[in-house]
Amino acid sequence: xxxxxxxxxxxxxxxxxxxxxxxxxxxxxxxxxxxxxxxxxxxxxxxxxxxxxxxxxxxxxxxxxxxxxxxxxxxxxxxxxxxxxxxxxxxxxxxxxxxxxxxxxxxxxxxxxxxxxxxxxxxxxxxxxxxxxxxxxxxxxxxxxxxxxxxxxxxxxxxxxxxxxxxxxxxxxxxxxxxxxxxxxxxxxxxxxxxxxxxxxxxxxxxxxxxxxxxxxxxxxxxxxxxxxxxxxxxxxxxxxxxxxxxxxxxxxxxxxxxxxxxxxxxxxxxxxxxxxxxxxxxxxxxxxxxxxxxxxxxxxxxxxxxxxxxxxxxxxxxxxxxxxxxxxxxxxxxxxxxxxxxxxxxxxxxx
Length: 352
Ligand SMILES: *[C@@H]1O[C@H](CO)[C@@H](O)[C@H](O)[C@H]1NC(C)=O
Ligand SMILES: *[C@@H]1O[C@H](CO)[C@@H](O)[C@H](O)[C@H]1NC(C)=O
Ligand SMILES: *[C@@H]1O[C@H](CO)[C@@H](O)[C@H](O)[C@H]1NC(C)=O
Ligand SMILES: [Ca+2]
What we know:
3 helices, binds 2-acetamido-2-deoxy-beta-D-glucopyranose, disordered C terminus, binds calcium ion, single chain, 4-stranded antiparallel beta sheet, mainly beta
């Protein structure tokens, strides 16, 4: 009985971190509860020299709406070449307005960057990706245009188990299929029924009035380039080790990073810091068959402690039946992992 009491006491005192070193397989870094912070920059190349046909100079001059994006898993598609545009894509492509909604299956983070108020310019933002949500999709409306946009569809951030470090992706214009206008400044002409999203090329749609129709060119020059640069990876052990000074420095160097959580393990009465979740055998001489404990299911993860920046989330489980006769039992009753969000960082940029 004394053993049992001790066991209970111990299991509530010791709260163990999930981030125990050396469990991360070298070639599966992104899937192992790491959190990657990326910078996304969109450079736009819509100049009068590269796209002289009907180049919009006034009211409005050539520009791009604010950039909207999300980080998601493979089950979610924000937009895709060849498929019908969702309502929110229609809103962005036709009007340059709207928000992307975060509260849906498969979506981890939504983010935005300011508009590029010229044809040639640049805008940037930061986003977060965890091992489960490792695809990024973005969209920015070409202004003026009927329903044209540039964007990325499910760009993979985890390649061969590692977070990609630095890539540039050149893109051309897409047509959302919801408005039939051919020219940049065509009046609204809703497509009924709507057609699928298509890539606009120098030859297609092959209508001479089309603003991007350059039959003499084999391909259009790129309209925008997305640069994705890895800023930082939060590994399992970060914040659990490392000095307070280091954490503060980290928080200072990146304004969106909040101070990291402190060590989660607690010191037991015998003065030992228990930071190993390894199965502990209760030593007890007994002639009877050892029975391992029964643990409840993990709760779902709590919401992230930060909605703008890097935080952590927690899940817990309970002991359903204590071990008997020297059976074994994991003492891991709580796990923490990193999370990040950019939702609350989104400022109200000027809308079109
Ligand atoms: C646009 O480019 C064309 C040809 O390159 C040139 O003739 C024209 O003057 C330019 N217009 C402006 C406003 O820069
Ligand atoms: C869009 O889809 C069409 C048809 O499948 C394909 O030919 C084209 O290469 C695609 N374009 C882009 C940019 O993905
Ligand atoms: C990313 O790559 C580009 C071109 O290869 C280079 O100019 C740039 O310095 C790189 N940036 C980082 C952060 O590595
Ligand atoms: Ca269209």
